[in-house]
Write a structure and sequence with these properties.
This protein has eight helices and seven strands; from the N terminus they run αββααβαααββααββ. By secondary structure, it is an alpha+beta fold. It has one domain (2-186). It has a three-stranded antiparallel β-sheet with strand order 3-5-4. A two-stranded antiparallel sheet has the order 1-7. A two-stranded antiparallel ribbon has the order 2-6. β4 (138-139) and β5 form a beta hairpin. The longest helix is centred in the middle third of the chain and has 33 residues, at 101-133. The mean pLDDT is 85.
Length: 196
């Protein structure tokens, strides 16, 4: 519920940013430079023997921790956390009314502040359950923690780059630069302009 409200506020703030003529203090726009990726398929097709030579086995441990019975739990935010419930209602009303970016951003920061201790408590409880599980796969009716060892074959591009940098460079592909727009999450901690 709070994640949906956070997303709703983000979308409304980003729409307000698009309509604004000047730069907004509530939204940050970043341009990320293009990433270079190694084209493994093209390298393997062009140099199958070298690809076989630089192929290694990688062992990884896949872990998936999940709590049981959460789907059957009926969430009543107004009863469990009345302050958060009222704030969520205010958020929906503000977004529907088309309030200003400053109001929406204030509500966004308040939502993060209200949700923060709850997220922290959830993470602590999950860590406690994982510690209680230890090497077992589950605590009946409470949680499951599956751990699977997986061995995969992978091209060791780090060794290839170290031993054959010219060949490695030839198969690098440059991706596109990206534009990322995000809502500022730190403005609540800044001092007012007059106190500098």
């Amino acid at each position: 519920m709070t994640k949906e409200a956070e997303k709703l506020l983000e979308v409304a703030l980003l729409e307000a940013q698009e309509d604004a003529a000047d730069e907004s203090p509530y939204v940050t726009e970043q341009f990320r430079s293009p990433r270079h990726t190694f084209d493994k398929d093209a390298f393997t097709a062009a140099h199958p023997r070298l690809a076989a030579r630089y192929t290694i086995e990688r062992d990884t441990l896949n872990r998936r921790f999940s709590l049981s019975g959460l789907q059957s739990h009926v969430l009543d935010v107004l009863e469990d956390n009345p302050v958060l419930g009222r704030h969520l209602a205010d958020v929906r009303e503000s977004v529907n009314d088309g309030n200003s970016a400053s109001v929406l951003h204030r509500q966004f920061l308040e939502l993060l502040a209200l949700r923060g201790p709850l997220d922290w408590e959830k993470e602590l409880l999950e860590a406690s359950l994982q510690a209680a599980c230890q090497e077992y796969e589950k605590i009946a009716g409470v949680c499951t923690w599956t751990r699977t060892s997986v061995t995969t074959l992978a091209l060791d591009t780090a060794t290839l780059k170290a031993e054959r940098p010219d060949l490695h460079t030839r198969f690098l592909q440059e991706g596109l630069g990206t534009r990322a727009v995000s809502v500022n999450r730190h403005l609540g901690y800044r001092l007012p302009e007059s106190s500098h």
